[in-house]
Prior knowledge:
Elements (H helix, E strand, L loop, with lengths): L4 H14 L7 H11 L5 H6 L5 H12 L3 H25 L3 H17 L22 H4 L7 H17 L6 H16 L6 H7 L2
Helix pairs in contact: 1-8, 4-5, 5-6, 6-8
Amino acid sequence: MELAPNTKLSTLSDDIEKEGVLDATGALQQRASEIRGGMVNWMSYMQSNMITQDDYNFIIAFDKARDKKGRDAILETQSSQCSKTFLSLLGHISKDQTLQYILIMIDDMLQEDKSRVELFKPTKHSKKKSDSLWSPFLSLLNRPDGFITNMTSRIIAKLACWSKELMDGSDLNFYLTWLKDQLRQPNNEYIQSMEYQNL
């Protein structure tokens, strides 16, 4: 039986995560583990009007939910707020440490349940009709922080594998060009992570 292209990618991505290949992504996962151990002072972002009260309420609850069951309960009632908050945070916060933490939260959430990629589809809260599933993440690939760019690439790979929406056109061209450029860079400490996440 021949699988559809997205099904093949989804199955391959699942196999990679489950079969221990995750160990080969060492540097990225080790750094993610360290960052997970930290905390973000979300109140300071709200007090400085960088995030809204709704974003603050959601991110505090979601951050405190330390297991899938807790996050499922939050997403059951606040799924639209989830994507709105994460996309708002990605668009308004520029501090590397906080962006790293946010990207790990998104990656963990997607890893727990691949159907959650559909939460990031553009909706009425999108700024422009031309916004795509990929646009909030593709812009992060230009940041100078290696962890941010490689964790973003990991998220984009999951979105591409697990979403019903196919990546195409200029988004696909930009992403593949970025991947090719990264593979050519000497001394990329996350190169092994990129090779496995983008099989």
